[in-house]
Amino acid sequence: MREILALIMNNQLGKARSxxxxxxxxxxxxxxxxxxxxxxxxxxxxxxxxxAAEVFTYMSSEQQKYIVGNITDKExxxxxxxxxxxxxxxxxxxxxxxxxxxxxxxxxxxxxKLLNQFLNYPENSAGSVMTIEYVDLEKEMTVKQALVHIKxxxxxxxxxxxxxxxxxxxxxxxxxxxxxxxxSDDDVKLKEIMETKIIYAQTLEDQEEVTDKFRKYDLxxxxxVDKENRLVGIITVDDILDIIEEENxxxxxxxAGISPTEKEYLKTSPFILAKNRLIWLLLLMISATFTGSIIxxxxxxxxxxxxxxxxxxxxxxxxxxxxxQSATMIIRxxxxxxxxxRDLFKILGKELRxxxxxxxxxxxxxxxxxxxxxxxxxxxxxxxxxxxxxxxVLANMxxxxxxxxxxxxxxxxxxxxxxxxxxxxxxxxxxxxxTIATRLLHV
Amino acid sequence: MREILALIMNNQLGKARSxxxxxxxxxxxxxxxxxxxxxxxxxxxxxxxxxAAEVFTYMSSEQQKYIVGNITDKExxxxxxxxxxxxxxxxxxxxxxxxxxxxxxxxxxxxxKLLNQFLNYPENSAGSVMTIEYVDLEKEMTVKQALVHIKxxxxxxxxxxxxxxxxxxxxxxxxxxxxxxxxSDDDVKLKEIMETKIIYAQTLEDQEEVTDKFRKYDLxxxxxVDKENRLVGIITVDDILDIIEEENxxxxxxxAGISPTEKEYLKTSPFILAKNRLIWLLLLMISATFTGSIIxxxxxxxxxxxxxxxxxxxxxxxxxxxxxQSATMIIRxxxxxxxxxRDLFKILGKELRxxxxxxxxxxxxxxxxxxxxxxxxxxxxxxxxxxxxxxxVLANMxxxxxxxxxxxxxxxxxxxxxxxxxxxxxxxxxxxxxTIATRLLHV
Lengths: 443, 443
What we know:
The structure is a homodimer.
Chain A: H1 2-9, H2 13-20, H3 25-34, H4 37-46, H5 49-57, H6 61-70, H7 73-82, H8 85-93, H9 97-106, H10 109-119, H11 126-129, E1 136-137, H12 143-153, E2 162-166, E3 172-177, H13 178-183, H14 190-193, E4 201-202, H15 207-217, E5 221-225, E6 231-236, H16 237-255, H17 270-297, H18 299-304, H19 312-335, H20 344-373, H21 378-408, H22 418-441
Parallel strand pairs in A: 1-2, 4-5
Antiparallel strand pairs in A: 2-3, 5-6
């Protein structure tokens, strides 16, 4: 790579070009990230048009902005011609308004209309991720006619692996794979071989439902229809891979109390990073003072038996951990569709039992440790271990129930994870602990 | 669905059959899960052979076990004939040894040899997820010859969308898509149109590296070669979708302190669920007592100024939350390849700044609240807020650094998440708090 850069510095562009073209487009895009920004334009311009367009789709928005800002309208147009519509839309969605205008101005009228329509689909809808470059066929065609048609029009399509059979109103009637076409005899009509049990999405459907369909039916492509059931586009599995990772990232972030962001960590400023975390930190900090006020209410108890204070962190942590273990299992199960809200009571029953098993084990270990190793008095050891048992049982049930309840109220279950559950369980844990201690110690 | 069940109860199998066949195989498999186990066999047997085989791949291992245990060797063989090799391997990997034997006994010798070889690939290696049903071509073939060859052999292949060009030693020389074949002229030779910049995997490569390649290069298929670079199989993107979700689930579980399991929550017994969570709960419980011992060391301080105790939960929680926010960002970045271990110092610098911004904001809010709302004495409010600031800064740096350090030592970064970081940060938080309080209060 350094070699290529040296060639460019020495203006040996021809040599640099052939060296670069040994790479895959995504690798060229990564290489451009290491190059000083002002050099990227030179390199970008020596690439063949089709490669340049593909490299462009893999660039960071900063670089895309730089390129678009520094090339002519004619050059923009020639990139647009090579790009699939969904890639153009992806890139425009990240651009500020003046850049979008510049790009739209450079596009021909037809593309401009289409782009405007696509940019109007709600974010994360099937319409916003689909592409329109698919092969359409008619059911009265023979296999041979279909193949001729594909040969004529296929070069501009995102895929020819699956073709779509539509009627005169563009209503989707069937799908037929290129495999079926190749393996069938020339004069068979499409209506005899096309698949009519079609899985499809509607333009306004949420992308999460779309990914569920890909996952469930092991799809590579999914047709998208409008309200009148007319075929308007297809979604391809490579975009679905990206969406799945995005949604997992969102869940990871929400579960840690971070406002979700799609931007890479290293490319985000400390201010933005802090902003995304502060809301929850503040909220949880203030809720935690509630726990402090419970301690205050039992000040006399703690002053009389100071050693009780030393067990507070252990009890709170264990409760928090047990609760977030349950919550994580349920949140993940909901995300994968393995658990449904109607399973609430099954889950409560299960978590009750899990909590009792874990609670007995933890309380047992603790009893041995406290009584034999730390030589704590029996009654205090008993108070701690009894509390531990009840805290773990309760934490498991809270952790199991809250994500389901959130889902029922159409709130993202992922926010019912570790930070929130720990904070809630903390307060209740202390109540249990102090109540049991007061009873047993007769303070 | 109830309707179908009624038809079966009334022995109207023909009608039931055509009703069932309106469904997609995966939906039939789900339907069978709702049916009493003894009825599944009847339904399974009325399905056409190819549909039965596909339905079989979507069944739970319990049901697969039941089916295999109750059908004849001949029936097993006819299912095996229809299954792709990777699906057979998937299913056998979940079966107990005596079932594997029964299945292997039913297979013809060739299949048996292959299956034995596949079952010997290490779990999670490229070899264990690949399939061998791909189309191979030779570079001297013309497009026309290639298409004739595909037509003859394609019906048994998992895909014909990408074909593989190999030499006489089965070494991979190029790949050519069906699209390229269809769009090229009949008498062009494959060597002129095949792609020679090939992305491939080795049989022993870890599936995580394989998924990285799919993600990075937007692949639908990836060829797998052995040590001598001979083509031995291909991996398809639908299996990659499953692997990505599995690995995300593992990360979610590890990050909550749960031993990873692939089994669905609702299908796992409370004992297994408890077992998977207990190791970490125990470990963390015992570590948390260390925090207790710090409190014990400062007993005198707490007895003298009891109100200090009430801020312990808030300080510990905020530190834990800040630390796990950072850790989550870094763990996820590492998993997606956006962050590399060599970025450690960049991360520390960033988290230092994020921690200072968040620390100032939180300490500020807290100061106002304590001094004006709760009427706490100025010196105590100052001790609490100063501690809060240092705790948040430190927690951010610990949370940012530990996943990277884990990765460097080839430990899964995901275990450096919320539970472990909270426990570690707790102890340090208390040390900071008590030290500052002692200094400011002159106790």
